[in-house]
Amino acid sequence: MIKKLKFITLLLLCASIGVYAQTAIVLGNISGLKESKIVFYYFKDGKSVADTVKVKDGQFKWVVKMPEAQKVSVVLFDDYYQFFVESGNIKITGGKTIEELKVTGSKTQDEYKAHDQTLLDLNNQRSSLYDKWGKVSDEEQAVLEAKIEDLGKQRKLRNTQYIIEHPKSAVSISLVSDKTSVGNYEDAIYAYEKLDQSARNSMIGKQIAERLTVLKRSAIGAPMLNFTQNDTEGRPVQFAAFKGKYVLVDFWASWCGPCRAENPNVLKVYNQYKDKNFTVVGISLDDKIESWKKAIKDDKMPWTQVSDLKGWKNEIATYFGIKGIPNTLLIDPKGNIIAVGLRGETLVKALGKFL
Predict the structure, then answer these.
(1) Is 16 exposed, middle or buried (0-12, 13-18, 19+ CB in 10 A)?
(2) Per the CB 3.0–4.6 Å rule, which of 87, 175, 212, 253 could disulfide with 285?
(3) HEC-encoded secondary structure of 53-78
(4) Phi/psi at 47 (nearest 5 deg)?
(5) Tens of pLDDT along 303-337?
(6) Contact 347, 265 (CB under 8 A)
């Protein structure tokens, strides 16, 4: 009987150690933090969840089950701060700004910071270029955009190389996840296939696989969805009506600053190519018809505009997995997708190539 009790006690001890080994304890001591509570956003069992944690005198404690390392978001100083959390004891210290925050105790965070340092030169160059954005001549602006585009390509290449060299890393998994959020299907599937099978079988890895099935709908060569949505007057518009033309499908919204900044560029190429078998179809992620109509009038957009006024739940945007705007799909006369994510100088170059 005594031996049996000892065996049961040993089993319970092993179980408790196993549970503890999957637990992250995040201790915060941020002197400039005035909030009485903060919210951590992360994934649990494949679903996005949020934990609210009390703060007193800038100090807090977040205890969470974390079987796999993952990137977590928290709102601090009215801004999103992201860092990697894994099982064990982690500390966040700092003063009054995001830049002053320091995370210790997370090996994955250390890996991420080390990789981020390898991108510092690109980030600095991009920041200096953006300081000149909109303050130069049209010719200089075109050169500016080309340089920024090139820096973006270099960044993608470095991230992909990191994934290839660290196929099991949680940082690599996160980098692939980022590609599925803001990149195209071709880039994302290439990076995903470089991950080790263990990484693909992780919770985030499985989410990436699901995301790729959606992104594949906008792969180069895929047929465009023959959708129907209403225009500003409530009249149904079917995409099949534009077959035989090159069509730029433009996802935007009245509340989106970058979209409004891009609209003059779209207007420019529309006027340049509208008599050469080309048109634009705007799909708005607005939910208020008055704001939508006003933006169309203010930005002088003469092309067809449609929306179901469901905001981010717009059925066409959801079908293609659109998570950021402005975003575009270029469709050929046969109704197939031939380019994605065109804007600025890349849009001008692409239309020059095809038209």
Answers:
(1) exposed
(2) 253
(3) EECECCEEEEEEECCCCEEEEEEECC
(4) -120, 145
(5) 999 999 999 999 999 999 999 999 999 999 999 99
(6) yes
